[in-house]
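ASSEMBLY PREDICTION REQUEST
Request ID: AP-0331
Submitted by: J.K., bench scientist
Number of chains: three
Total residues: 1173
Priority: normal
Notes: Please return the full assembly, not individual chains.
Input sequences:
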Amino acid sequence: MTPALDLVDIRKTFDSFVALDDARFSAYAGEVHALLGENGAGKSSLMNVACGLYTPDSGQMLLHGAEVSLSGPSEASARGIGMVHQHFKLVKPFTVAENILLANPRRSFGKGIREISDEIRKRSDALGFNIDPTRRVGELSVAEQQRTEILKVLVGGARILILDEPTAVLTDQEAETLLTTARGIAAQGAAIILVTHKLSDVKKFADRVTVMRGGKTVATIDPATRTTEELTELTVGANLPLPARSPGHFGRRRIEVINLRCARADGHIALEDASFHVRAGEIYGIAGVSGNGQSELAEALMGVRKPESGLIQIEDAGEAVAAASPARMRALGAAFIPADRYSYALAGSLSITDNFAVGGVGAGRYGSWARLRQGTMKKDAEAAIAAFDVQGVRTLSQKAALLSGGNAQKLVIAREFSRSPNVIVAHSPSRGLDARATAAVHSRLMSAREAGAAVILISEDLDEVLALSDRIGVMTHGRLVAEFDAPADRQQVGRAMVGHV
Amino acid sequence: MTASAVAKRRLRGVRLNLEVRRDISPWRQAAYLAGFIALGVCISGLILIWAGVPAGDLLDQFLVETISDGDNLRSVLFQGAPFILVGLSASVAFRARFWNLGLEGQMIWGGIGATFVSLHHIGPEALRLPLMIFAAAACAMLWVAIAGQLKLKLAVNEIISTLLMNYVALNFLYHLLYGPWRDASDGFPHSAKYADFERLPDIFGVSGALPLALVVTLLIWWLVGFTRFGFYMKFVQASDKVAGAVGIPVGRITLASVLLSGALAGIAGFIVASGQEGRLIQNFSDGYLFSGILIAFLSRNNPIVAAIVAMLVAMLFISGQSLQVFYQIPFAMVQLIQAIIVICVAASEFLIRHRIHIVR
Amino acid sequence: MYELFINWIANTPGYAAPYALAALGLILCERAGVLNLTAEGIMLVGALSGIGATLILGGYPPVAIVIAMIMAALVSMLFATMTVLLRVNQVIAGLAMVFFCQGLTALLGNLFEWKNQPITGIGRIDIWPLSEIPVIGHVLFSQDMIVFLLIPIFYLVNRMLTRSMVGLRLRAVGESPEASDAAGINVTAYRFLTVMAGSALVGLAGAYISVASTKIWVDNVTAGRGWIALALVIFARWRPWRALLGALLFGAIESAMPRIAAAGIKVPQYFMLMLPYVVTLCVMIWVAWSKRGGATDEPGALGQPHVREERR
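STATUS: Completed
Returned structure:
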């Protein structure tokens, strides 16, 4: 039997960065084939080659045994390859039907919308998706948007279905439903490629797994024949130790959030009545499925989003600050590690020195208004980079955007921790980082805890929250619905996340 | 592989892929830039030849005549001053991510402010000149503050608001010159002449405007490169969101830059009014908007480079004037040449920022 | 007084037409995600070409207008090359284009001696007997050709934009080039051609000014109308029919100006001439005020160049 999709020795570089290093991959019709690897291992790049978004520098691609060279995504979909991207490729202001029509054009618009809507209803019923074709995609939940994406490629007649990190944004239950559906689609003769870094998904739902590391394919095996530990080792390389946990020594309340309420730009209330406190020397984890108000909470804590009502009180601030500016929060000793580094922490086009020094300039560390001590700035930056092990720095005047995700995060931490903060707000601090960088970030947070800082850890990665937190608050639909003391039961926290307390 | 697949690949042939560069060496960058400026100059030359300038006279007109002739050189040196100021004005605003396209309106208000002081004999004679400069800066600042506040408070698009305000300012100037400020002595639509002590004095036979502009250049250079304000501006320019999140007062920095930009344009307005006719005339601000943008764009908002580019633009202006006299080439030619050079430089940025990948 | 009023209403569409057409062309470009600041320049190209073609042909203004549209589309290829192919900053490219066109038209108008040469241009068409109906007849059925065509043009463009596959793709390209790319749409081609088509409409607006209104070429004959059209697009929230409405408002103001003077009401002349710009500013402020914090309906990817393989 020939594979439905066969990728042979694919190589792809981006301006001297090697994303794919002679990677190989093949998938058969009727199987769920997982593609496993850490972030940055090249999974997405390889699949972007398969769906025609990237043109490989070298290598062959065979479909059902015949070599093809895709001119673009449209040719890929014409040849039956459908990709559901991790970041959905949907036009938000369009309806579901318009989005699907866009990818599967018909001659006439009016007739096309009618035909497509009928087909959506039919398939949606068959798969149990419950999607209304006339709704605007922007109003749908993340899981519904994902179903729209799947319907889109199925309507296009895809026989090879690539799901890129499909469970990353879903609750455990939603993920289970989705992957069961995926197995069903495979059983009808399609090849399902499941790109993921979650071992549990692989163990439970994949017939075969191909492991990638550093742009290379390491192995293709049957996941049932290996233990989780063996799979981990294949993915990560050597095993990394978990940060050591000492019992906490909690001091006074350092930060208290009282009845915080935030609205999004469109008026939707994203955060309602949030109240919690964090003590010195404590890590307070906030768990929840992405999009349940965590971003708004993080932004309000950083001072970049004005709350509708409620208070944020910092110890020694004298008074509660209802709508603190970032400058004021920082002056009170707060440090921030935002989820989106290049929106809230680093100016990618500016130098490493500038990005490091900006933390101290406002406090007057580098001279008065009229003079800037650039020599001191450089010296401090150099010392911090060494202390925090920021790699890939050729010169200090190099753009911050040239740092890899993990090193950019270390730069942020170096800056934020340089003034020994007493309150730390970290939002998804390990998102997009490899295992090694994640471990470094975690140990920094732990040592801040040891040093007596109050740490708020907002993360969609439940494992991260469970591993680090002393107490855990769970957010759903903009509310803190439950609170657990460590060690918390994973099942209980998970149930609270989907609203079944 | 089947034969048809091979044929198909051949037919498709070479594909070009585009990719964003992570980094580029300064030398390569300079080479691209120089190449494209040369291309722009060549295109401009061809248009001039087509418009009736003998090819042999081109170099003569643009370089030799403008520098060797005493009068021309003096004109260039004077003309450079307002160009430096509008160039700095544009670049200060651009550094704060504010598209100040109201340079001409602000120049007009600068002229009006200075002329008001002159017409009403405000202050003692010895202080008149600084007072006029101050009034010019203040009026222009107030004018640009409207657009600045509208952008900051209501997110009104400053590109359109500042441009529309140019037309408002121009019509107001006409109103003054055809109405209350019309020169009573000859009845022409211009203001009464400034007194001698109200004009910038010559220094070593050259208009004092240029030294003034150079001092301002150095001040701006210090401001953007060596002060906390300049450091903050860098962040605001790079990303206002990041700047806000790391604790920079983005609104205040932006407003201060916008006001400074307006003040510089206002002073430029006064210099043109005082240095050319010594009075407020119609259309004295024509052509400065685009020159300012061009200077800021070509100098990448660097004050020292802006001053150099401004002098080159001044040369272009003066030679444009002699082309008008000798070959009846309309002055619009100067604007056309400037636009062509901006287009070429903008095109060069494409190669600086992207890498083209050839895929077979 | 009554006469004056009817006269004002009857003249409004003629003043509104250039705003309406230019705004429509800009809406097309911006719905495809290209921030088009070139209107003032492209209108000049249309205006000069209209006059030039009329003078060369010795008449045939409708043909001249079509030629003007083609010329505008051709010149806009330079802008499209810069913004769509070369991914130049769209503000810089747009401004450079305006000044390029101002310089070019002034130069060519002079060199070809088209300046200050009056032409007959297009005139009013009376649709007899409807034009004889009192009041309404004069307002609705005695206009020039382009004004009569306004409604059909708007209907067709709006329908194309909202009820056709081409329109669906065009809007998708402006909202999310990444999603469009993944759906197999050639973003570059769509944007490039949309800029040309939109600019043809902007050129038509310019040609209308010179061939139907002024009937003569002078430098900068458009006098800032392109910028007003840009403001109109924001006011219209990128919707064609709202743009037509806004254009009529501006047409009414502009058409009122000479009539107020004729009626003997004393307003300083230059304050009168300021009015369109001041009103535009006020409209922009009002629009911004009324939707503070809310959605602006701006196309999602307006002003953003699209590069497929971008990596941070």
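REVIEWER COMMENTS: Chain B touches chain C through 48 residues (CB under 8 Å).
SIGN-OFF: pending second reviewer
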